[in-house]
Design brief:
Structural class: mainly alpha
Radius of gyration: 15 Å
Helix content: over 70%
Number of strands: 0
Shape: elongated
Order of helices and strands: HHHH
Largest sheet: none
Length: about 120
């Protein structure tokens, strides 16, 4: 198994790509603020999941990287809310992207609560 096989990775990568495509339509003046921020945070989610998986022989590092991923996922939701309130996306797109983000959050949480299912050796 590789990190690319993880459902959390796949879904978070897919969400980051959706956000990338949608953010192409954001105003030019947002290039170095909202557009950059939402792309960075959304891309950090799968990147941190990949790092967590590769560090699974170190339980604390695995957990730490997953909490980083979860935090980036929450940050992405904040940027989506700004995009909605600035009228860069509509309510339907916002609801869809936030629903995807919440699903990713649940998958990350599952990994944190069940590290042994991902090859982490936990002490009992």
């Amino acid at each position: 198994m590789t990190f690319q096989d993880l459902i959390a990775y796949q879904k978070s990568f897919e969400l980051a790509m959706c956000i990338f495509e949608i953010s192409k339509s954001f105003p030019k003046e947002e290039t170095y603020s909202l557009t950059d921020q939402i792309r960075r945070s959304s891309r950090s989610v799968p990147a941190n999941i990949a790092e967590a998986y590769r560090k699974r022989i170190y339980p604390k590092s695995f957990y730490s990287k997953l909490t980083d991923s979860d935090a980036e996922n929450s940050e992405t939701q904040v940027w989506l809310e700004f995009a909605l309130k600035c009228n860069y996306i509509n309510q339907i797109i916002y609801d869809d992207l936030v629903a995807q983000s919440k699903e990713v959050g649940k998958l990350i949480n599952y990994m944190m609560l069940n590290p042994n299912k991902f090859g982490v050796k936990t002490e009992h």
